[in-house]
């Protein structure tokens, strides 16, 4: 599904307006990577470490490349992030690990909202769904320590009791929590907007509920994938999801290929170039040797 001639044929079939929409979709993807770097900077600052945003952006882009060429979702990229800031900025490995685990945990909030939003595709009780979401947020805040422990188990992350305690203590910084959840939510909003723009480029105008379900499916297939970058599995899953909801196969193939061209092909190329230009190759080689 990643043949260059297929991409070329799809691009040539689009008019200037459609190409502009795809250009904006591409810009939104890299805006998301900037938000990821900004969120990480804020989390590290909340833990007493202030790192340059540009350097965190470089390692974020590089980690996407590593994720895309190594098996299992996010595994290699997260290790690169920890190693990068530990080696280049003398951040203790335990602290950098905690910052990344905390990011994964706060992402659960917007993912749950995305799930509730997706439910609106099948149900019209928007107010009831919004009330459920607010109740979910309240329960997280009241049961923060339990939420952390459950999240760590679900994510299958090994932490010491001291590291768990440090994450739990972040509840005492409500501004950090609000910013982290807010930035995580922005990333998902941009993800849905990117899918919307890609769909519009091919003359399809899906509603937000369906886009939320497609975005969630993309996430789940990526997490379940065991191939480098989820190649084959994510494409097949996204195509299957689209056709399941009645999207014509030709349109489903076009949307799938362009989405993966942006989020996998180009991100791999850009990440590789950033890794080379930022002196991260030695770190990556060290990771590969282990």
From the alpha carbons, calculate the radius of gyration and give it in angstroms. 19 Å
Write down the secondary-structure element order: HHHHHHHHHHHHHH
Number of strands: 0
Low-confidence stretches: none
Sheet bearing the most strands, described? none
Protein structure class: mainly alpha
> What is the number of domains?
1
SS summary, helix count:
14
Intertermini distance: 32 Å
What overall geometry do the principal axes of the alpha carbons give? globular
Proportion of strand residues: under 5%
Determine the mean pLDDT. 82
Helix content, binned percent: over 70%
Defining traits:
single chain; about 290 residues; mainly alpha; 14 helices; about 80% helix; transmembrane helix; TIGR00374 family protein; cell membrane; L-PG_synthase/AglD
Structure description:
The chain crosses the membrane at residues 21-39, 122-142, 176-202, 208-226, 238-258, 264-284. It comes from Thermococcus celer Vu 13 = JCM 8558. It is a multi-pass membrane protein. The protein is an all-alpha fold. The chain has one domain (4-283). The protein has 14 helices and no strands. The chain has helices spanning 4-12, 16-46, 53-69, 75-89, 93-106, 108-119, 126-142, 144-154, 161-168, 174-201, 208-224, 233-244, 249-277, 281-289. Helix 6 (108-119) packs across helix 11 (208-224). The protein starts with a helix and ends with a helix. 33% of the residues are buried.
């Amino acid at each position: 599904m990643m043949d260059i001639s297929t991409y070329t044929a799809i691009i040539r079939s689009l008019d200037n307006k459609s190409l502009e929409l795809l250009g904006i979709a591409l810009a939104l993807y890299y805006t998301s990577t900037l938000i990821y770097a900004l969120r990480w900077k804020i989390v590290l600052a909340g833990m007493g470490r202030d790192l340059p945003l540009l350097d965190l952006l470089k390692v974020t882009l590089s980690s996407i490349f590593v994720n895309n060429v190594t098996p299992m979702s996010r595994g290699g990229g997260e290790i690169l992030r920890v190693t990068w800031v530990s080696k280049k900025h003398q951040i203790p490995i335990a602290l950098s690990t905690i910052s990344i685990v905390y990011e994964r945990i706060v992402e659960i909030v917007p993912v749950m909202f995305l799930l509730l939003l997706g439910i609106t595709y099948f149900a019209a009780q928007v107010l009831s769904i919004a009330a459920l979401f607010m109740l979910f947020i309240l329960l997280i805040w009241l049961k923060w320590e339990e939420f952390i422990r459950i999240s760590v188990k679900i994510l299958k992350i090994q932490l010491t009791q001291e590291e768990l305690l440090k994450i739990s203590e972040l509840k005492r910084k409500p501004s950090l929590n609000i910013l982290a959840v807010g930035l995580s939510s922005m990333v998902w909003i941009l993800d849905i907007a990117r899918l919307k723009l890609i769909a519009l480029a091919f003359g399809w105008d899906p509603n937000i509920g369906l886009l939320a379900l497609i975005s969630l499916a993309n996430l789940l297939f990526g997490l379940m994938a065991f191939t480098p970058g989820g190649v084959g599995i994510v494409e097949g899953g996204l195509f299957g999801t689209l056709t399941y909801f009645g999207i014509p196969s030709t349109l489903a193939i076009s949307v799938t290929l362009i989405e993966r061209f942006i989020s996998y092909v180009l991100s791999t190329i850009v990440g590789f170039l950033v890794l080379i230009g930022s002196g991260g190759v030695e770190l990556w080689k060290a990771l590969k040797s282990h």
